[in-house]
Amino acid sequence: GSTLREAAADEGGRFYGVAVNDSMLSNSQYANLVAQEFSSVTAENVMKWETIQPSQGQFNWSGGDRLVNFAQQNNQKVYGHTLVWHSQMPGWLENGNFSAAQLRQITNNHISQVVGRYAGDIERWDVVNEAFNEDGTRRQNKWQQTIGDGYIAEAFRAANAADPSAKLFINDYNVEGINSKSTGMYNLVRSLLDQGVPIHGVGLQTHLILGQVPSSLQQNIQRFADLGLEVVLTEIDIRMQMPSDSSKLQQQANDFRAVTQACLAVSRCTGMTVWGLRDGDSWVPDVFQGYGAPLLFTDSYQKKPAYDAVLSALGGG
Ligand code: G3I
Predict the structure, then answer these.
(1) Is the CA virtual torsion 307, 271, 171, 52 positive or negative?
(2) For position 4, what pLDDT does the model report?
(3) Most informative mutation of 82, 176, 283 for ligand 1 (most atoms within 8 A of CB)
(4) Ligand 1 centre and the CA of 45: distance in Å?
């Protein structure tokens, strides 16, 4: 295959995806490259709670529908992101004082509306995002504080009821290697499976730093796969201290190759998604001062060394 999507498909039917910035979809150069190179799209922002239910009971489907239509026109999968997350909550939810019963009702309604609208169109959903602290304990988000430990199982059950065919994921960052956080996640998904909770996969976000691909990445993917779960690398980027230079770009290519190979080594690692198209589309410089250039394309849509490394690791070129 001469594109990421073709090469990934030839590797056991995997997908290679990208997070899409809704405001760029009207730019034809951006849209054409997304269509050409990628077989899956994730909404970078427009399916998050603050966008999709900005006031209680008022749903705004415009951005989500635009992405789903785009994907259908271009024969792409859609990866749904995300239903229950402590960040990018609308003010009414973040600041509301709800009882456990009320928050349950609000959350079940949100999940059934959103998953229901896209039932059959969205193959995978991040049902719960970033539920862990770095030490592997539960993050004290609004659901944990109000409902307690059971909120995760309840969210998965609500999503499964809304679309029994969707594959339901738990997703987090800093869980790529074997460490306290990924072990917390591992123990939780094991107990969810024991309880018969409909969970089908684990998303490893894979926001990495140049030269720091965890050496236990493949082993960690394998331990989740051994539970019978799918693993997806959901938000890949590899940031470097700016300015970039050719040796950093070569290191980045090596790092992207290692990440790709780790996924390919495990048959249940079914897909990978990069978190943005061009370096300038990335969230990284806004959050990590002095860091950037974490993606596969330059701002002028040129392929970086990391692109070539991913394509060749996928057996393409
Ligand atoms: O929409 C407003 C716009 O009206 C306003 O003028 C502008 C001014 O700052 O802000 C815009 O909102 C921004 C939003 O992206 C949409 O562009 C927010 O400030 C900005 O904080 C937000 O950042 C997003 C971030 O999640 C928020 O947590 C990034 O684009 C997005 O890439 C990032 O994605 C997350 C994943 O969802 C979960 N995992 C981590 C990953 C990186 O943080």
Answers:
(1) positive
(2) 98
(3) 283
(4) 7
